[in-house]
Design brief:
By secondary structure, this protein is mostly helical. Helix content is 92%, strand content 0%. The chain has helices spanning 2-21, 29-42, 49-180.
């Protein structure tokens, strides 16, 4: 008896859940027969012994049939759910593909900008290296010019000293020639 009670308890909880999940449209044929059996049982004349057992087994059978039909409905709704899930997954995949394509295009755009910037920096660095080499050459030339200017000053001093010495030498030669006369 306890096994029957636990089975009845399990079946009734399943039935309640399944009935609440099913749409409130027209009742199924098994539900109609269940209502008919219930009304015919209440109209019974009082012979309860074998008819009660018979009605119990028939109610169990009806309940089992109803559960089977509900399970079929659940299977149909599950397959519909799978179809919906599949369609949702496809839609999500399409969204992700478009986002991926957008990201790829953006990445290509950013790479091209990066290439342009690096080329520009390379040109600037080349210019700066050329500018630095030119600057070094200019500094070297300026130093060389300043050295040459100093040499010219020294040369000018040497020329003036040389001229002075020539003049003194000429004067000394004249003095010596006057003295030797």
């Amino acid at each position: 008896m306890s096994s029957l009670y636990s089975r009845n308890k399990d079946l009734s909880s399943r039935t309640r859940k399944s009935l609440s999940d099913s749409p409130p449209s027209s009742p199924s044929p098994s539900t109609k027969s269940f209502r008919h059996d219930r009304t015919s049982r209440s109209d019974g004349s009082g012979v309860e012994g074998s008819s009660e057992r018979l009605s119990r087994t028939s109610s169990y059978t009806r309940r089992e049939n109803r559960l089977v039909s509900l399970n079929k409905t659940d299977d149909d709704s599950t397959s519909k759910d799978y179809k919906k899930l599949y369609e949702d997954a496809l839609a999500e995949n399409e969204k992700l593909k478009t986002r991926l394509e957008d990201s790829k295009q953006e990445l290509a755009k950013i790479r091209s900008q990066l290439d342009r910037v690096t080329q520009k920096q390379d040109r600037i660095s080349e210019r700066s290296s050329v500018f630095e080499s030119e600057k070094k050459e200019k500094q070297a030339l300026e130093k060389r010019v300043s050295d040459m200017e100093e040499e010219l000053k020294v040369l000018a001093e040497l020329k003036s000293d040389n001229q002075r010495l020539k003049d003194e030498n000429g004067a000394l030669i004249r003095v010596i020639s006057k003295l030797s006369k």
